[in-house]
Write a structure and sequence with these properties.
Elements (H helix, E strand, L loop, with lengths): L7 H27 L4 H12 L3 E3 H8 L3 H13 L3 E6 L2 E9 L1 H21 L5 H15 L1
Antiparallel strand pairs: 1-3, 2-3
Helix pairs in contact: 1-5, 2-5
Length: 143
């Protein structure tokens, strides 16, 4: 019995999205992985850098759109590599704070320029309007 697709165009769009995501991820992530940091971990380091070096874990989670378990796992891995430090807020012990270490800051400063160039190249086939449209479409799908 053949499978019946409820919306064939949606299935084609899904396949195209998955292929594009995998291709972009390969182009962008390879150097990070060679440096021993996952793309997710690097995202944490970049966000901490742009936030001044410290954020509450729940704020970091919100900015990344991650679950508590995922954020805890990624920050634990970064902490094991001395790239971040996690600690309880002395004023409210329920709050976990994540601080960027000097080693983490150095890694971001060293890797970010080339990472940024790779991101630019990965989306080089799109013009400005297409990049805006893609970003908006992805926001809609993620909502």
């Amino acid at each position: 019995m053949p499978l019946e697709l409820g919306d064939p165009l949606a299935h084609r769009a899904l396949q195209a999205l998955l292929r594009a995501e995998a291709a972009v991820r390969r182009r962008v992530a390879a150097e990070l992985i060679r440096e021993g940091v996952s793309p997710a971990g690097f995202s944490v380091l970049v966000i901490l850098t742009t936030a001044g070096g410290s954020l509450e874990l729940r704020t970091l989670r919100r900015r990344l759109g991650w679950s508590k378990a995922n954020a805890t796992e990624v920050t634990a891995t970064l902490e094991a590599r001395y790239l971040v430090r996690r600690h309880r807020d002395p004023a409210d012990r329920r709050i976990v704070v994540v601080d960027l270490t000097s080693i983490g800051r150095e890694l971001v400063e060293r890797l970010f320029p080339e990472h940024s160039d790779r991101v630019t190249r990965a989306f080089g086939a799109l013009d400005e309007g297409e990049k805006r449209s893609l970003a908006e479409l992805c926001r809609k799908l993620a909502a």
